[in-house]
Design a protein that fits this description.
Structural class: mainly beta
Order of helices and strands: EEEEEEEEEEE
Oligomer: single chain
């Protein structure tokens, strides 16, 4: 089992940037596809970005061109660089790990058995 701990959230003004980090332990990191999701109170959890074990990238349309997901398999860490932030990006951001066995859409919560505790991102207008 892999444990995930997010960090890097905070309060920023619209147009600003943040970099989220997710440190993994307890598993073979390089064998997991990694994803970022976000959720606001009372709303459905939303897919943000995914990076496969081979480095293939997938982004939600709402963040494409502004956010970049990357991974460092030596540091066992996945990152989400968020630029040009908008108030609608405000959410609790979760890191998730997918063992990627079988066919995947990459965007469904139930494809990721392992989750971090979340880190809050608040974008002021």
């Amino acid at each position: 089992q892999v444990q995930l701990v997010e960090s890097g959230g905070g309060l920023v003004q619209a147009g600003g940037s943040l970099r989220l980090s997710c440190a993994a332990s307890g598993g073979t990191f390089s064998r997991y596809a990694m994803g970022w999701f976000r959720q606001v109170p009372g709303k459905e959890r939303e897919f943000v970005a995914r990076i496969s074990t081979g480095g293939r990238l997938l982004y939600a349309d709402s963040v494409k061109g502004r956010f970049t997901i990357s991974r460092d398999n030596i540091k066992n860490t996945v990152y989400l660089q968020m630029n040009s932030l908008k108030p609608e990006d405000t959410a609790l951001y979760y890191c998730a790990a997918d063992p990627a066995v079988g066919l995947r859409s990459g965007v469904r919560e139930n494809e990721y058995p392992y989750w971090g505790q979340g880190t809050q991102v608040t974008v002021s207008s």
